[in-house]
Every structure is written in structure tokens, then in C-alpha cells.
Amino acid sequence: MTLRKQIRPFHTVLVANRGEIAIRVMRTAHRLGYGTVAVYSEADRDAPHVQAADRAVCIGGAAPRDSYLNIAAILAVAERSGADAVHPGYGFLAENAEFADAVDAAGLVFIGPPGAAIRAMGNKAQAKRLVLAAGMPCIPGYQGEDQGDAAFLAAAADIGFPVMVKAAAGGGGRGMRLVDDAAALPEALASARSEARVAFGSDELILERAVLAPRHVEIQVLADSHGHVIHLGERDCSVQRRHQKLIEEAPSPAVDTALRARMGEVAVRAARAIGYIGAGTMEFLLDRDGRFYFMEMNTRLQVEHAVTEAITGLDLVEWQMRVASGEPLTLAQDDVQLNGHAIEVRLTAEDVAAGFLPQTGPVLRWRRPEGDAVRVDHGLAEGGVVSPYYDSMVAKLVAHGRTRQEARRKLLRAVEQCVLLGLPTNQGFLADCLADPVFAEGSQVHTGFVQERFGARLSERRQPPLRTVALAAFATLAQAMPHPQGHIRPIRLGGQTARVSLAHCGERWDAQLSDADDGWMLRLGDHAYTLRHAAWQDESLDTLHAECDGVTERIHVARQPDALHCCHAGRIWRFDCVSDRTPRNAAVGSGAVTAPLTGRIVEVAVATGDLVQAGQRLVVLEAMKMEHTLTAPMAGVVAEVTAQAGGQSTLGALLLRIEAAA
User: Fold this and answer.
1) Exposure of 421 in the CB half-sphere (CA atoms within 13 A)
2) Which domains does the chain have, with CATH numbers?
3) Rounded distance, CA 523 to CA 561, Å?
4) Average of pLDDT values for 82-93?
5) Which pTM value belongs to this model?
């Protein structure tokens, strides 16, 4: 049966998503006078997006398949709540053609493209065939129906190594593997199929010739139901890790007016050819010679849409809603003006040194940057948690300036002012990227920027500066001191000292605090710091201002029974609070394999008694929509296996143990 897309006025929007994007969509909906309905899982009952909506309804359990991917439940909520339009946000069902069709069939307005357009572009293999017919330049590759390893090996030999394996049904770096030679291809295919099956419900793959050191540049298109299509310029998304975007900017430092016109023209032509309606994005790889190649089309709003909004002055969610209600575009291509420069970063709950592994944990403190110099989209709330069920991105920060350098400076300052305590994040790494001289200059950035500029340093676990340790130790002790109106009064110790011991990554500091004139003296080994004029910012005792050796600064802290989390000088640290003379060591032994994250155990590849080699695949975990393979830290015999496929792992839990072979 052919469905006609519902395009008509509406009055109440159900947002079929969560977190920052749900809040962002509701913000525009409320500004335009629409009512809003939120849906939420059991894990999100107290989430900020629930509070932001006019009405909210629980749709199921924490796992996405039981809630945010449950089409029948979402449509039932729309009927119960009186919603007559649905906005999918991004992720989850945003690019699910069956969902778009089901919304239309229910007589609701889908604030997105027709199901047919989503279906046409949702499979990379089919999309490439369609855009090739429309004259789009594409990367040489293989998108055949034969999905056997032999077919891929033969195609790779014709294409030439290195090649990129990609999931045909999805994006976001999931199911994507770079393969340098034929020997590595079968394992890459198996791994990519497994991850794609989990993430997208399809294990279909394609191959593409690997374009080395390209830029990732995308064109934002906007189309109405009356046949008008325009583009809103480009975004540069070249700073990536694990093939997922970290930093995006508009316009691209590598695109001039002529190249923008050429890329925009083919993007508009392709969108028109598939009958596209709404906001969408054509993604390209741009080589150093200015040649660009189509990768995929995202038939939804992008995470990075905010940088386009900043330089064009347009609200893309507003235009999605206006187009969905039947309004024609009032903008011609010549009306689109790009003003200044905008840069966005994605703040994620990740352990950078562990290979950007996603992390979960409590939100003990959340403080967004001060002032209005940057836009902050987030779904965080103190007292909440970042769970293993959803994406690791927890916020995005966007700065707009007259020039790229002004935008970069604003954003760097904002990132360093962000305070998220309770779990690891990539905050410090984002600051390092923004401050990097190659990124600052701009012209030499490419998709390999992170590895090229940071390389082995990515796995290093830095130790905090002694000044940070001193302030953290003082803040810990100061929480027990009198503080009328916030001002901390010294406890006269009568020549005695107050003590606290902090540890981080195997190093320990024993701090001793004693009386001094008008303040305190804090000793860390051979180092001594004079502290005066200390005060808590408020009664929560989480932000301390203190003069340390003549310089007044502040430190944000959050306590747990055995840990101190703090933010000082733009960096986040977690200290163990220790009470004995033995530094803590989380390792059970050199052969212990512990869970680096909380997640589902997909596979246990060994059994007790097996002989293993260093680097051998042992366990596969899945969390936040990504698979993570754990390998043997040493050669030996598997002495103990506690992990079970289908079960859950918790951060730090022992999964298995290897002993040296006799």
C-alpha cells in the first residue's frame, strides 16, 4: 500500500526521543506555540526532558527496544495524549522508514521526510546506487547483494587496500572498520557484522576504498513539499575518534565559495531526485585536491545542526515544523548568508585513556559555563545518572564568533569552565584539541587528526599538578570546618595537624594542614602552600574560593565515601580517599581482566583451562550502542571465568583471570 505523507497544520508535538535533543525540540515547539508530549523509559523517569514537556508518558523499560524503539508504544502515547505530530529527534527511530510510515498511517504528521526517502537513503548500498544515477561523485567500492567473505575479498582486491568496511544500514562509526590488508579482512567483517546487527538490526555491509587523510564535510539541505530545495552551506566534522564526530564547525576552513557552490548544487540535485522533504544532510569526504565523494545522506536533524543555525541565523527545528505543516520555503538560495564562524564540541561520558570507552555513573555536580557566550544543549541534572542504555554524549557546547579564532577562544574557555563530576568525561581532551596549534590553524585538519596529533599520548593517564592536589586536600579538610556565611574559620589545632591522604593512578599524597598566620599551611611532602581567605560559594559546599600562595582561585568538589571528585583549572580529577599507608591498586593481578565499563556481555570467547596468547580476543562487551573487545593482557592459561554471555558487567568487575603457563 502506498502511503501519502501527512502534511498539514498540527497543534501538539510528541518528541520520540530523550536527553538534550528532546529538550531542544521542545524549546522551539514552545516558542512557536505548540504543546509538547515527552516519552520516557523507566530509567528516565526523573530526566530533564520529562520535566520540560507539557505532558509525559512512560513507554517501557530502560532498554531502548522496550521504550524508545517501541513504535507501537509511541503511537499509543500519541493517541492517549492528543498529540497530532511526532518529531523523532536523532538516533533511535529518526531514520526508521517503518516508523515514519506508521506515523503517517496513524493520521499523524511526521516532522521529517517521507518514509520512502528514508528508505531510499537509509541503506548505504542502495543510496550509492541512487545518487550515482543522479550524477553524484562516489568513492569506488562494493555494495553488492553477495555478502559472503569471498565476495568481499574479491572486491577488496579489485578496489585496492586499504579499504573501509561499513554497515549498510547505519552510521555514527558503528560497524565501521579500516582494513589494511587481505589477511585482516575476515575478522573485520565478522566484527563489523556483529556490531551492525546490534546497532541497526541488519548486518549488511559495503566496502569503500579508504580515502587517506580526507576531511569530512557535509552539506545541510532544506526542502519543502512544494518542490523547493536549498542548501545552507557546509559543516566540517573532521575531528573524530572511533569514526565518530567530536568537533564540528561551519563553515569549513577547506571550502571556498566555488567549492561550496559545487557541493551544494549536487546535494540539492540529489535531494530533489528522491523527493526529499524537510531538513537533511549530504555527507562527503573531501580530499586534499578538492575532490569530494558522497558517503551517505542523513535523513534527519544532525547533532551538529547548531553550528549551521549559528552562522545562518535560522532555527532548523522551526523550519522542520513549518515544512511539516505545509508551509513553503520563504528562502531562496541567494537569501542564505553565512555570518561569522561557529564551532561545536560533544561532551561525552568516556574514558579517553582507555580508548574512549563509554562510562556510566552518577551526576554528582553539573555546572554549565558561565554567561551567554556559548550555547549549551544538555539533558543533565544533578542527582541523576548516565546509564549504559543510551549514547555517551551528554551535552554539546557551541560558540559563535566573528572569526574562527574568536569562536575557538570562546569555546575553549567554555569547555574549561564546564563542571561535570561523578564519572569520566572527555572534557580535558576536548580542551587539548581546541588548543592544539594544528586545529587552531585549521587548514591541515583531517579525519586522522586525533591519532596524528595525540597518538600514544591518548593512553597516558596524567597526574594532577601539585597545586590541584593541595587545593583538593584543603577542600576535603575544609568541609569539616565552621563556615558562617560561607567564610571558613580555621580550627585552631594548637600545634597539631589535620591529615588527609589522596591517591590517583598509583600515586599517593599525604597532606598535612596546620595553623598559620591568618590561615593555614598545607604540606605535601617537600612542598608547602599558604592558604588564606577561604570561602564556600554556597551551602552545598561544592565550590571553594581560596587564596593559595597569594593567588585566589576556585575548585569545585564532590565527595563520595571513598573518593573526591574535583574540577580545577579546567580539568577534572578523581582522587581515592585512602586511610592507610598502602596505595590502592584496583588490579587483582597482572592476568586479571576486569570490565572497563558497565554493559552487556555479548560474547565470552574462552573457557577455563584454555591456553591464550597475549592480545587474543577474550570477551566482547556492548554498551551505549558500541561493541568493545577485551583481549588477553598476557599469554597463559585461563584460570577462572566469571563472565557469562548475555549477562551484565559492572565497571571494575572481574571477568576472567589468566595465569602464566607452567
Assistant:
1) 25
2) 12-111 (3.40.50.20), 117-135+215-338 (3.30.470.20), 140-209 (3.30.1490.20), 340-460 (3.30.470.20), 466-578 (3.30.700.30), 592-659 (2.40.50.100)
3) 24
4) 97
5) 0.87
